[in-house]
What we know:
Rossmann fold; three-stranded mixed β-sheet; 15% strand
Amino acid sequence: xMVFLTGATGFVGGHVARELASRGASLRLLTRPTxxxxxxxxxxxxxxxxxLLQPDALRNAIRGCDAVMHVAADYxxxxxxxxxxxxxxxxxxxxxxxxxxxxNVPRFVYTSSVATMGFKTxxxxxxxxxxxxxxxxxxxxxxxKFLAEQVAIEAARAGQSVIILNPTxxxxxxxxxxxxTGRIIVDFLNKKFPAYxxxxxxxxxxxxxxxxxxxxxxxSTGRPGxxxxxxxxxxxxxxxLDKMSAxxxxxxxxxxxxxxxxxxxxxxxxxxxxxxxxxxxxxTVEAVHMGKKKMxxxxxxxxxxxxxxxxxxxxALRNAIxxxRANNYAPAS
Length: 333
């Protein structure tokens, strides 16, 4: 099987690429000229240099493939030019779907995000059927992923074989950038996490996410046009910090900060660091807004229909901590 894979240099995409290769798939891996290729080391496959902002240049690489697996996304909670994010996440997805149709690619797997779900402030566990609209999306990243997901759903309704996967918050080794969640771990390891907010996340082992990506390439796995949450444990931020404390021996912060105080800090950090200095702020207004909702979710549908496995998050958290330490993001234990 020949698979065209976007996002292979990233965290989730790198794990997906290795899982596909372990199953004997031939890979065409989209990379940008500026991409860090560390996650591709030792990985067999053909490298395709391109960009989602110029998707039509990717037609030759997509031609003749058995599947397109679109994992790449512009994942930032702060961005100076939101238009670039929408062009990449929404229009890039639309163009890849179109090219795959025109080239008669039998299967298209789109990696969305649990961020597109209808989360509540009271910690209600949501699923794929929880009502949600674009107005519920906080910030450009969530809005762009929601709109891109709608494009994928529309393509499936028109007859294209599109499976939509919605990972929650993946953790594990290889988080090069790191992702916003990886930054939580890195900041904790570097003792830069003095307080916490009353929020919550669903953490999932990135290895299980990658395994299910490979599983849905089989034509009988999953229903086209359906969304599937791939999650693990629902945990408050305090519970996550306590788990990291148990693994590392480092103290877990005991001071809880009200959202109003966190919002003030984020506003000044975004203004001074982001707008004046032109650097990415440590805290953003968007992230604090998102934190008002506990992102607790159920993966029951993916368990039933895809054979997805919900596993304890301890090992993935340990893998992430060990990897960040081994790669000098934080001091050794």
